[in-house]
């Protein structure tokens, strides 16, 4: 019996925690996982894993796990070769589209699609060959406002600035509960420790949420917003930044900021207060605190995406980061350089095409 240790990454969520996996090789049998632990040498996750990663052992060793394609014949299933399965699926897809049209085939991509190099580098080629407009994913459920905002502001739907939690001094969270979700569009393993580290180094964590969420419970300040009133709050914050001269120069080229200032002139904290359920002076003070921080992040997630003004919320959050000089800046929001760069390798996306 031989024991071997392998170092891999868990791809069940975007935290991508490093794993140390021990397997046992016994004569005349496939390798069997005996242990999954966090890799303490992983510079990103630093030894942290959650129960989902530990459960990978159960998935791998499950005797009922499918390990090859199965074909149904009547009420029975029988194994077939991989190539036979590929050929059958390709022939059926082609025949359906030839007979009924390209859009009679739909594609759904789950969240782990973007945690898998193979799918990230090759799925777009396959989908391009299908030429169907019926494409659905976890994105279409909870985060399209992020992508539309990036498409309209930055020219590419995948250019998503993420919060630099490890270096920020002030983190404002709207519509997010990373202590329950492990974080989303922030890519941070052990998010609770990372958020508490902001406080330990003298920074501040503020949560905007209609309920006292798990993340709100550890925050320095929790403001209860009226459900669906986040856009009004963000308008009040941005207006205060302009009216009180709290903006900061950015190293980025900016076009159209004067038009924005003019457009939101009437969206004062006083006017927005009844709409968001937060006192006008609290809105103004929050804007001052955010602007006073050397490095700050305004971060909105699912709660501000899946509402009537989702895209507006994300546009305003991006503007708050931009006008305070925190966009694409250490300690603010970062435009990262990933291993698979979808911004340079894909089109920017489209809107209102069909």
UniProtKB/TrEMBL annotation:
Residues 3-62 form the 4Fe-4S Mo/W bis-MGD-type domain. One of its GO terms (cellular component) is membrane. Transmembrane segments: none annotated. The keyword 4Fe-4S applies. GO terms for molecular function: 4 iron, 4 sulfur cluster binding; metal ion binding; oxidoreductase activity. SMART domains: Molybdop_Fe4S4 (SM00926). Keywords: 4Fe-4S, Iron, Iron-sulfur, Metal-binding, Oxidoreductase. The keyword Flavoprotein does not apply. Pfam families: Molybdop_Fe4S4, Molybdopterin. PANTHER family: NADPH-FE(3+) OXIDOREDUCTASE SUBUNIT ALPHA, RESPIRATORY NITRATE REDUCTASE. This is 4Fe-4S Mo/W bis-MGD-type domain-containing protein. It comes from Pseudomonas amygdali pv. eriobotryae. The lineage of its organism: Bacteria, Pseudomonadati, Pseudomonadota, Gammaproteobacteria, Pseudomonadales.
